[in-house]
Amino acid sequence: PQTWLGTGPECSWFGVTCVTGGDAVERISLPNNTAVGTIPEEIKVLTSLRDLELFSNSVSGTLPAAFATLSNLLFVDLEFNKLTGPVFPNTVLSMTNLREYRVSFNTLTGNIPTDVNRLSSLEEMWIAENDITGTIPTQISSLSLESFLIYGNQIAGSIPTDLGLMFTLTSLDMVNNQLIGTIPSELYNLENLQGLFMSRNNFQGALSTDVGRLTNLIQLWIDQNSFTGTIPTEIGQLQRIVTLKFENNTFTGPIPTQVGSLTSLDFFDVSGNALTGNIPTEFFNLSTLRILYLSDNNLVGPIPSNIGSAAALKDLYLDGNTITGNIPSITTGQLPALTELLLQDTLLTGSVPASICDLTTLEAFW
Questions:
Q1: What are 320-347's pLDDT values in tens digits?
Q2: Residue 269 pLDDT more than 80?
Q3: For the chain, how many helices (H) and strands (E)?
Q4: How far apart are CA 146 and CA 257, in angstroms?
Q5: What are the strands, taking DSSP E only, across 80-238?
Q6: Tens digit of pLDDT for each residue in 10-23?
Q7: Strand pairing of 16-18 and 25-29?
Q8: Nearest C-alpha neighbor of 219 from the set 196, 189, 201
Q9: Over 90: is that where the pLDDT of 102 sits?
Q10: Is the pLDDT of residue 163 over 60?
């Protein structure tokens, strides 16, 4: 910034905030500023610094040793940069007052160390989309984290059962790692959890009926794993759920009719499983449902006659099933938002009803 090259006081520089009534810097906020270079060790002289926000720049190098001396630093956001080196160097582990550590989307390496519990004040750990390896240490359970984001790394092993002791967690994102094993029963104790993201790992086993205890869940992503068994009817207890992603597993049995209780449901995907039975009519009574992907299962029976009642429905994929009968007629004014309707590779018979032509928003009909 031009003001950083002038002779004015630091407190007048762009992105710099000083303590009220003083000249000590307490905040540096320079997001999206095409900043380059490294974080200088001279940052240690800013002993009042509480907040360092440099996300979405081109900052490179390693995390500075000077961090260890900044005892007032509470918030660090260095996401979307070009940082290298270990994600948890000793200098970071020394920051016992740190509350938010955000370093996602860099090229940081190493693992989550067993002494990560030294960060005793930490509430947010965002270390996603790096090159982090190793396992999730059980010691992390002693932290009072609200969000733990590790997606897009190469973290392996199973989920520690002690994670079920992290009652403050509202968001747990483990997508796209190399995690294995089952969902530990203790995880269903996290009743404050709003987002549970486990997609693209190697998890297996059944989804427990205890999932119904997670009544604050808004997002549940367990797609692209090796889960088996049935989808528990207790899924209907997730009254706040907006998104359910179960696709590309090996779930069997029927789709529970209890989905009709999910009055906030927007997105439901169970494609690429081995589900059987009829398409629940209850789906089409949900006024919020926009996306319904049921492709590539073993569903049978007719398309429900109340399909036209789904006023918000945008995408309906029923292809790759053994559903039978005719395509129901659509009354004028119904399905006003429908954009994509996929029915290929089924056993449907009869002609396409002329009312399909009245769907003015329809872009794809296969």
A1: 999 999 999 888 888 899 999 999 999 9
A2: yes
A3: 1, 27
A4: 33
A5: 82-83, 100-102, 124-126, 147-149, 156-157, 171-173, 178-181, 195-197, 202-206, 219-221, 226-228
A6: 888 999 999 988 88
A7: antiparallel
A8: 196
A9: yes
A10: yes
pLDDT in tens, 241-253: 999 999 999 999 9
Q: What span, in angstroms and rounded, lies between the C-alpha atoms of 75 and 31?
A: 14
Residue with tokens 């961090």: 67
Please list the alpha-helical segments (H only) found in 17-173.
90-93
Q: 234 to each of 237, 238, 250, 256, 258, how far by Cα in Å?
A: 5, 8, 19, 9, 8
Q: Residue 172 in contact with residue 190, Cβ under 8 Å?
A: yes
Q: Is the pLDDT of residue 6 over 90?
A: no
Backbone φ, ψ for residue 58 (5° rounding) = -125, 40
Q: Comparing C-alpha atoms, which of 95, 35, 36 is closest to residue 65?
A: 95
- Looking at 52-192, list the stretches that DSSP marks H as alpha helix, in order from N- to C-terminal side: 90-93
C-alpha pair distances (Å), 330 with each of 297, 307, 362: 25, 8, 13
Total Cβ atoms within 10 A of residue 177: 23
pLDDT at 356: 83
